[in-house]
Design a protein that fits this description.
- This protein has nine helices and no strands.
- With 178 residues, the protein is mostly helical.
- The longest helix has 26 residues, at 58-83.
- This is RNA polymerase sigma factor 70 region 4 type 2 domain-containing protein.
- Residues 117-168 form the RNA polymerase sigma factor 70 region 4 type domain.
Amino acid sequence: MGISQQKMINVLVIHHDELVNYINARFGNRNFAMEVVQETCLRLLSKKSDDFDHVTAPLPLLKRISMHLAIDLYRRDQLIGQYFDHTAELSDVVEEVELEKFTLPELCLAKYQYEKMLLQAIKALPTVCQDVFILTQLYHLTQVETAEQLGISRGMVARHLGRALQSLIPVLFEQDDQ
């Protein structure tokens, strides 16, 4: 008997740090490993639920999918690196052009207002969500380390982090419709 798509996602959430460490051990880049595990999750979500009917051991399958995906992404990055100069990122150029429209006092005020808005949004979170968000996002602790620090399970850390991010996404990625 197989396993449902939701169970596969649950296994990925439970073993998130293990998968990141597995990819990091091979490629030596934790950020790349986190990107690969996130892409693995997106791939799982895009599959039909009956694609997992014959899966009996989900963790080894997730490790295999992650490793193959990491190899593909690494090769793609190497190929792109041969043809493009990454020293001047497009986003940096766009930001410079956008920032030239404003004076330094205007930029300082905008930064202050954004920081104030972000701090207010973080303070509006429940206490445990605040703690989880700050430990994982600002202090870069893993979910396991955060769970140990707060004395809760890793699954609860994932839930609180999800809630915090859902609340903060409108502030973090505010888009002007003007």
